[in-house]
Amino acid sequence: MSVRLSLLLSVVLPGLLTACVVTRHPVTPAQVPAATQSADLIALLNTPGPIVHSAHLSARWSAKLSGLVNLDDPQAVELKDGDTPIVLPVHRLVHPSAGVFVVDSGVERDTLQGGRGPARGAVTLATKSVVPVEPLGDILASAGAPIAGVLITHMHLDHLLGLQDVPPGTPIYVGAGETTATGRGNRLLRRTVNAALDGHAPLRELDGVGAVPLGPIAQAYDLVGDGSLWALSTPGHTPGSMSYLARTTEGPVLFTGDTCHTIWGWEHNVTPGSFTSDQAMNAKSLSALKALAELLPGVTVYVGHELDGEGTGVDG
Ligand SMILES: [Zn+2]
Predict the structure, then answer these.
(1) Do 240 and 176 contact (CB within 8 A), yes or no?
(2) What whole-number distance in Å separates Cα of residue 43 and Cα of residue 120?
(3) How many CB atoms lie within 10 A of CB 257?
(4) Using an 8 Å Cβ cutoff, are 223 and 233 in contact?
(5) Quick one: 213 exposed, middle or buried, by C-beta within 10 A (0-12, 13-18, 19+)?
(6) Rounded to an integer, what distance in angstroms lies between the CA atom of residue 216 and that of residue 214?
(7) This model's pTM is above 0.90
(8) Cα-to-centroid distance, 229 and ligand 1 (Å)
(9) What does the pLDDT look like over 103-160, one tens digit per residue?
(10) Ligand 1 centroid vs 47 CA: distance in angstroms?
(11) From the CA of 104, how far away is ligand 1's center (Å)?
(12) Domains of the chain with bracketed CATH
């Protein structure tokens, strides 16, 4: 979330800041396949899998550091608040038989020609500073296989901006309770979120049915049913925040979503700041992800808004 959007939400249009849901887009149970039966799922995760992963920098934006990192944490004492560059990544996962999945949606093609994307009303001012680099439509076009699903980590605006590049009918997955959470400012965002979701099928909610424990993660969903792609319930940043884990040809790859925005936050086990709705729960989920990563010695970890060498540059 950018500084301008934060300002809009906290200062401008106070009459609109009553708590409400961000969208009434329909939701349906995700109905995931039965989870892979394995005596040792962790051992399975430590063996290379069938998925080909590529990381894409879809856009650049900025956000307040105090939103990205909990500056009250004793480890963050050296960090100074201020406007900080971030990236909006899209992680493309090509499964040899199931098709292409993407983690989050980046931005849509329209924005490369100067279009506003799904932004509506006052949100248009905030998203003006988003700089598109590789829109989702281009990321999908070069994949060489049809899209099988969009894995939304959570329903904050900066994770939904590319959804209009996805064909209608594509399964879009969200965590349990993500669309029914109420919040101040949602009324301001609702037209934009609805424009992002316009024409799309009901969101597939990972609602606990079919979930199994995966190491320290209490609820994990085997999305393809072959143990290669897992949705991990990591609530806290938002009520239904999800992380994802893929068994790739290069080994396990973990996508934290905004359970952790920055590489610094991951390395120091420090949660995001004001952008997180429930600090204690976010901390618990981040610690669970850290514990999972400890069990996967060859794991590559991607945080929500930074790619190696590209992003916040937080290094305090
Ligand atoms: Zn975000």
Answers:
(1) yes
(2) 47
(3) 29
(4) no
(5) exposed
(6) 6
(7) yes
(8) 22
(9) 999 999 999 999 999 999 999 999 999 999 999 999 999 999 999 999 999 999 999 9
(10) 30
(11) 9
(12) 3-302 (3.60.15.10)
